[in-house]
Specification:
This protein is an alpha+beta fold. It has 2 domains: 99 residues, no CATH class; 179 residues, no CATH class. The strands form 2 sheets. Strands 2, 3, 4, 5, 6, 7, 8, 9, 10, 13 and 14 form an 11-stranded antiparallel β-sheet that branches.
């Protein structure tokens, strides 16, 4: 049994809140008490779901020695909710079935439970900004982190050909600054993937190893790089010339997330190097020379 992945908590939390709600319907049957002593209507609509969410959050990053107790607690919390509120549609029972005996739900590599290399490990962006070293990294095995991974999307929703994908890292603080990230503009327009292949499959085909060109506009296919060293200061590559700049993907591996053997989220983990010039969005005359850049990031489907 491996360390519980943070993906598990996110998945179950979204599932519970999306599919289990009372929708202001009248509760049927007699409810003499609830596990926390609250009003049954409040428990089934709010506090019971919150208890499930808290039990899921408690699983984040648990070591194998502690994972069984955390899994048992989550299972008991779900069973308590079902006993009090019912389980219309069987969604919570489905979650219990998928939890199995050890909550070992999340895998990558086509469901091979022994290979989580694509979704685990150290994700990072490191570079020199005008000669000064910037090192942002997140270790999935760590119980604390100075930086967290993020994934942004932009462009018209529903138009896969024009969607932009932006994996990166940001500081683990209230402002999320500093932050940096790679941008893939109009990613799935490469080889017309957007018109021939579902996004869940195209993501694994869109990052071949090799050299890439920087975009001069967010309306054309290509890569970019952005960096915010402080609040109200955002620099990116779209602001001017990229003569002499480089961007290379040197490793590209599938990092799909499967839940109970079914594809939950397609992803690709990429590693590479880069150099470029970035321009202040609010003052294009201010530039930063980026050198010695390298990264390991996971790009996921929208």
């Amino acid at each position: 049994m491996k360390k519980i992945s943070y993906y598990l908590s996110f998945l179950l939390l979204c599932t519970a809140i999306t599919f289990i709600s009372c929708d202001d319907e009248q509760l049927e049957g007699e409810f003499s008490s609830t596990p926390d002593g609250s009003d049954p209507a409040v428990f089934c609509a709010e506090t019971g779901l919150l208890a499930i969410a808290e039990a899921q959050i408690a699983l984040i990053g648990l070591d194998p020695a502690d994972a069984q107790a955390g899994c048992d607690s989550l299972r008991a919390t779900i069973n308590s909710f079902i006993a009090t509120c019912g389980d219309e549609g069987g969604t919570l029972q489905m979650l219990l079935d998928e939890l199995g005996t050890d909550c070992n739900l999340v895998t990558d590599g086509g469901g091979d439970d022994d290979d989580d290399s694509g979704i685990d490990g150290v994700f990072f962006i490191t570079f020199r900004a005008n000669g000064e070293l910037v090192d942002m990294r997140f270790d999935t095995a760590s119980t604390s982190a100075d930086f967290l991974t993020n994934m942004s999307f932009s462009g018209p929703v529903g138009d896969d050909c024009a969607r932009d994908y932006g994996p990166g890292l940001n500081a683990n603080n209230d402002s999320f600054i500093p932050q940096s990230g790679v941008e893939f503009y109009n990613l799935l327009s490469l080889n017309d993937l957007c018109t021939t292949t579902p996004e869940s499959e195209a993501i694994n085909l869109a990052f071949p190893t090799g050299n890439y060109s920087y975009s001069t506009s967010d309306s054309e296919y290509g890569v970019g790089f952005g960096y915010s060293p402080s609040e109200d200061n955002f620099f990116n590559t779209l602001g001017g010339s990229q003569s002499g700049s480089t961007f290379s993907i040197q490793s590209s591996e599938e990092a799909n997330i499967f839940v109970a053997g079914n594809l939950f989220e397609a992803g690709q983990t990429i590693e590479g190097t880069f150099s470029c010039t970035i321009y202040n969005e609010s003052n294009p005359g201010e530039t930063i020379a980026i050198t010695d850049g390298s990264f390991r990031l996971r790009v996921s489907e929208d």
